Amino acid sequence: MGYSGYSYSALTQAEFYKAEAELIRFGERLAHSPSAKHLQDTLLAIDAIFAIRMSHDMTLPAVSLITAFDLSNWKHRGDAEQGIRTQRPEFRFPDNCLNAALQAIHYMQAIEWASAVSRQDAAITMETVLHLHEILLSGKTGDNRYHGFRSNFLPHKKGSDPTAIPLEVSDLCAFASSEAYSPLGQASIIHWAFERIVPFDTMIDRTGLILAFMPMFRRGLFANGYMAPICWGASIGREYRRKLKDSSRVDRSPGKGEDLREHWAVYNAQNTYLSVVVADSFLAEAEKLSAKWRSQNLRIPAHSALDKLLDLLLGNPGLSTIRAAELIGKSYGTTNEAIRQLARAGIVREVAVDGRERIFVCGQSAAMITDFVESLVKKGDEAESSGVRC
């Protein structure tokens, strides 16, 4: 099946350009923000929270997700289960959301991997899709056996014939490696086509979504691995999204397919634009908190450990001194003294000492992140109940 012969309407293309322009401006703003690099995982965690809400009726605690993701990658070579198990009591997930938390960390790891592969400008192949799906299933420490495409037909003749899936995915990958359409126009076709094929039994939504991001990463959108929380918009109007996907899978006639593809494209473009609005509002909240800290009676030499810690703590509310020193590139002793100054100023508090690891929590940044996510949940719920898109 060819993917390059379709012409979007002028109105849909206008939606693409509007969203793409905002993504480019967003990248430029991040490039001039000293604290932005420390907010990268925070923005990714917010996106992951709403990726989970697309299929689960729950909201994961943001600070717990950030600390578990950091522990997984830093101490346990990507083992998400170990990251969750070794969290301190202050950050642990409630028992009823441990599986969802695991899925969220795997989603974050899959975004990281897709972003890194895209920056290397490697071609997108069938193995790329299989590996991406493996990370979503098992995380970075998966068995790499590539559990493969589904071998059974779906109910009611939805999706592709299982025997046709390898060829259809291969064709889609060739399209994903090209530069047809604008970046968002190309991404939307990839996402739509993946949902029509339904190549896997599980994690279909997230696999197709991240696969669609890859050409956007390759072509300069979501620059430097920054992920605006696009899943917030996608978690609103879940019923509408489900109808779009089901209709695409059931009616595969060319005319109907093109009509649905246009609706899908507008939906994705609007969600992308919303994601930048959300990310900008979060950065604005972080800048307010940073200004508040820096207005206190602290002597903050430029590029000092104290200066760097104030940026770091905006997106990392719970850290050990050892980890903080590594992230800001300063010695343990210098970092420890700077943290002591922040503790005396009431910006952080010590919650534990484990051997040489002193654990500190920044309640103000934790509250900022938590309140921000809760406000998005509330806004999304209100929009969904009223039938109005945000």
Automatic annotation (TrEMBL):
The protein's superkingdom reads Bacteria
Q: Which Gene3D superfamilies match?
A: Fido-like domain
InterPro entries, per database record = Fido (IPR003812), Fido-like_dom_sf (IPR036597)
Q: Which residues form a coiled coil?
A: none
Q: Which residues form the Fido domain?
A: 124-270
Protein name stated in the entry: Winged helix-turn-helix transcriptional regulator
Source species: Gordonibacter urolithinfaciens
